[in-house]
Specification:
The complex is a heterodimer of chains A (322) and B (493).
Chain A (H helix, E strand, L loop, with lengths): L2 H36 L6 H26 L7 H17 L4 H24 L5 H20 L11 H8 L1 E2 L2 E2 H19 L1 H11 L1 H6 L4 H27 L10 H11 L11 H20 L4 H23 L1
Antiparallel strand pairs in A: 1-2
Helix pairs in contact in A: 1-12, 1-13, 2-7, 2-10, 2-11, 2-12, 3-4, 3-5, 3-10, 4-5, 4-10, 6-10, 7-8, 8-10, 11-12, 12-13
Chain B lengths: L2 E10 L2 E11 L4 E5 L6 H8 L7 E6 L2 E2 L5 H6 L2 E4 L11 H5 L14 H14 L15 H14 L4 E5 L7 H16 L3 E5 L3 H7 L2 E6 L2 E7 L5 H9 L17 E10 L3 E9 L3 E6 L5 H8 L7 E6 L2 E3 L4 H6 L2 E4 L3 H5 L6 H6 L14 H14 L16 H14 L4 E5 L7 H16 L3 E5 L3 H7 L2 E6 L2 E7 L5 H8 L4
């Protein structure tokens, strides 16, 4: 190739890359402008902090989902893991286990449940969709068995535990801080470590990754465990906020998480996408929920609007890549 | 059908791909279209069949100016294009494949299977193909799939068939079958445009040849009036003194040895060794079990029985990770499928097996990674504007170099190359050969599987011939001839 051709090729690739990175940001920006014009109180600091608190749960789950989707997989069981681990954590607290220890144990339980997904998918050679659809059902069922279908209450007045879901630190909601911390750690993991690079490689071409000496099974099991752990952490926040564990907690949370990942520009076929995008996707969904509430739109219409926004985002993404 | 393309120009963005190409096809001729990758052969054919529109230039068919707006229209007018990647739906039957998009149905919209079967049968008979119409196309060999495509083209009454690298994945027997079919088609007045990198085939089957270089026609001539060296010279625009660069091997100790290895159904009782600085060529017919052997040695598949010895020590390779740890590299026969992350940058591709070497504290040192990758890009002369270019946008030769680069990065002791120059143009081929020689000078042991006999003869120090899953002979390079290898490969003594 001639140098001139090479330069235009380089420019084009650069331009495409920039567009792909900026797309979700632009979407969020436009959305914020529209909402704040319709209702200026959206931009009040109190509302913004409130929004950050609201999105923390979906954020944590969606971060884990990003890793899963980058490998070309999907995890439908995250909402069910949230429910089961929450119920177990609440049960432990009621029976006298120290709440902080209970949260840590809950995260471990979440990781183990995620690991079961990972093993079914790798060792059991099952399609991720099917495997996690099945475990979702099992985990949901176990939650109902354990709670007997009733909320678990009487979680006491432990200060640390209450802070976790409802507290503020330096005026910022603790769940938002948790989410941001998790984001930073996961961003480093995805973009700065061999583990992250291998995640992309598996999604890009699993056979080539295997032949390049990547421990595909191990990486995948770790990723599903991570998704489970983050779901359990989100569950702990929810339990603290509601001061109880609900047997049907986290229903359809997997769909919000997948929507956030997709809005963030991550390809469902794996190998392409960024966790920053997911954060933006989470904020877009959060802004929609929050903004539509402020505008007094009924929750029935909110669903319609949310769905349409997702469709538009994906359509625009298609156009760009075509 | 007579086709005349005159002064065709085409740019993609700012890339001038074709600048004044002329091409003429006569009825009933087999016309070779040759050129290095990126010379513009496919673009020219895509313009003819209406996938792309020329910026400038004339196309006339039987004397009338004709421009197709899409490949379907070209097909309806008798021009069929059989691409290198075959258009086969593996889960559908042969019959369904033959009539895809052209199903015959009654007025009520019900498929008329019997009618279609009769037509298909007639066509298969003409080509003397014996294939069950009801079996799944995915169960057919690549050669048979190719016949399905040819039959499909002929059923649309194609008068011109364009074949892009038709023999890339065929066995010797399938190739001679294909040549028989081409000869028969020619007699019936069908013209063939034959795109291939395999010089031997061009001289065996073609009547005329058009050579392209950098988007221009260099020459069109009768095949009988030219020879191998002249064609190569015109293709690359310079003289290639030797196809296979010379080297004086300095052989060391056995670095890799396999004893009595078997995988049920693939190969049996295979034993051979390779010394440092040595190139061992593995020859045999397609399907003889060579690739399966290499996959098992590298731990992709499990060995049922047998031992692997590395540097004089018995060891086991249970998975590719262990193979990499023990200093093995594997360049697979299908780089798009198993070698590359196509939608990922060259940098990340090359870095992949080497990540731990520049991630000292668990974090990737991006500066060291960039230096490492740049060095390899330079060393292997990978032609690219930037290491961030996605692998998909590279030519076949450069893609192959990326795969080789990632393995050179690990500092391999043993390198397994399966069909290292498949789909690679002449210039890049030569660079890959030179690179192999350099590696052996540094003591790397190379096992090279190849279906191209000249390549086996030109590059190997020792040749192992495989026949039906067993090693049927081992020949020293000095004593090897094409005939000797073919005899062993076909089961003779």
């Amino acid at each position: 190739m001639k140098t001139e051709q090479l330069q235009t090729e380089q420019k084009r690739i650069h331009f495409d890359g920039v567009m792909q990175k900026l797309g979700p940001f632009l979407g969020l920006f436009i959305l914020v402008i529209i909402v704040s014009i319709l209702n200026p109180s959206f931009l009040e600091p109190l509302n913004i902090l409130n929004l950050l608190r609201q999105v923390a749960i979906n954020g944590l789950i969606a971060f884990g989902m990003t890793f899963v989707i980058l490998t070309g997989g999907i995890d439908l069981s995250v909402g069910a893991i949230l429910a089961l681990s929450s119920a177990l954590v609440a049960g432990m607290i009621v029976s006298g286990v120290d709440p902080v220890l209970a949260i840590i144990l809950g995260c471990i339980i979440g990781a183990v449940l995620g690991m079961i997904n990972g093993l079914l998918i790798t060792k059991g050679k099952m399609a991720p969709f099917i495997a996690t659809l099945a475990t979702m059902t099992v985990f949901r069922g176990l939650t109902l068995v354990y709670t007997d279908g009733n909320p678990i209450t009487g979680l006491g007045t432990n200060y640390g535990f209450q802070m976790f879901g409802r507290g503020y630190f330096l005026g910022i909601p603790v769940p938002a801080i948790t989410m941001v911390l998790a984001f930073v750690i996961l961003w480093v993991l995805l973009h700065k470590t061999p583990f992250g690079r291998r995640t992309y490689a598996i999604g890009g071409n699993e056979k080539a990754a295997l032949i390049s000496g990547i421990k595909v099974t191990r990486v995948k099991v770790m990723i599903y465990s991570l998704a489970g752990l983050l779901s359990a952490l989100a569950g702990a926040i929810l339990t603290s906020r509601l001061h109880s564990a609900q047997p049907t907690a986290g229903e359809s949370y997997e769909l919000d998480a997948i929507a956030a990942v997709v809005l963030g520009g991550t390809s469902l076929s794996g190998g392409r996408g960024r966790i920053v995008g997911t954060l933006i996707g989470v904020l877009i969904i959060g802004t929609l929920n929050n903004g539509l509430n402020l505008l007094g739109v009924s929750s029935f219409y909110q669903l319609v609007v949310k769905g349409i926004v997702i469709l538009i985002a994906v359509l625009l993404d298609r156009k760009k890549s075509a | 059908m007579q086709i005349e393309m005159k002064d065709i120009h085409k740019t993609f963005g700012k890339n001038q791909v074709l600048s004044g190409v002329s091409f003429q096809l006569m009825p009933g001729e087999v016309h070779a279209l040759m050129g290095e990758n990126g010379a513009g052969k496919s673009t020219l054919m895509n313009i003819l069949t209406g996938l792309h529109k020329a910026d400038k230039g004339q196309i006339s068919i039987n004397g009338n100016e004709t421009y197709f707006s899409n490949p379907k229209e070209a097909e309806q007018h008798g021009i069929a294009f059989i691409h290198q990647e075959l258009n086969i739906w593996p889960e559908m039957t042969v019959l369904e494949n033959l009539f895809i998009g052209k199903e015959i149905s009654s007025k009520l919209g019900v498929l008329q299977t019997r009618k279609m079967k009769a037509l298909a049968k007639e066509q298969f008979d003409k080509l003397s193909v014996s294939l069950s119409l009801d079996q799944e196309a995915g169960e057919c060999s690549v050669g048979q799939q190719q016949m399905i495509e040819i039959a499909k083209a002929l059923m649309t009454n194609a008068e011109v068939i364009i074949m892009d690298e038709p023999t890339a994945a065929l066995t010797e027997r399938e190739i001679s079958k294909l040549f028989e079919v081409i000869t028969a088609l020619k007699k019936n007045g069908v013209s063939i445009v034959y795109i291939s990198h395999r010089m031997e085939e061009i001289f065996a089957i073609c009547d005329r040849i058009t050579i392209m270089r950098d988007g221009k026609t260099v020459d069109t001539t009768n095949i009988s009036e030219t020879d191998f060296d002249e064609v190569v010279k015109k293709m690359v625009g310079r003289e290639l003194t030797e196809r296979y660069p010379k080297r004086t091997p300095s052989l060391g100790d056995k670095v890799f040895e396999v004893k009595n290895a078997s995988v049920k159904g693939s190969f049996e009782d295979v034993s051979f060794y390779v010394r440092s600085g040595e190139i061992v060529g593995v020859s045999g017919l397609m399907g003889a079990g060579r690739t399966e052997m290499m996959r098992a040695l590298f731990g992709v598949d499990r060995l049922d029985t047998g031992e692997i010895w590395i540097a004089g020590k018995k060891t086991a390779i249970k998975n590719p990770q262990e193979a990499v740890k023990k200093g093995l590299g594997f360049i697979t026969e299908n780089r798009k499928d198993e070698g590359l992350l196509l939608d990922t940058s060259i940098r990340e591709n090359i870095a992949l097996p080497n990540l731990s070497s520049f991630s000292p504290k668990g974090l990737i040192d991006h500066k060291r990674e960039a230096e490492f990758v740049d060095l390899l890009i330079k060393r292997l002369t990978i032609k690219t504007a930037s290491p961030e270019t996605h692998a998909r946008h590279l030519s076949g030769g450069n893609q192959q170099k990326v795969v080789i680069a990632k393995w050179i990065g690990i500092g391999p002791k043993v390198l397994i190359l399966d069909e290292p120059t498949r789909g690679v143009d002449v210039g890049a081929k030569r660079e890959i050969y030179t690179l192999m020689n350099e590696l052996t000078e540094r003591g790397v042991a190379i096992i090279m599987v190849s279906s191209e006999l000249p390549e086996i003869l030109g590059m190997s120090d020792r040749i192992i011939v495989v026949h039906e899953g067993r090693i049927s002979g081992e020949i020293h390079a000095r004593e090897a001839t094409q005939e000797r290898i073919m005899t062993l490969a076909t089961g003779g003594r």
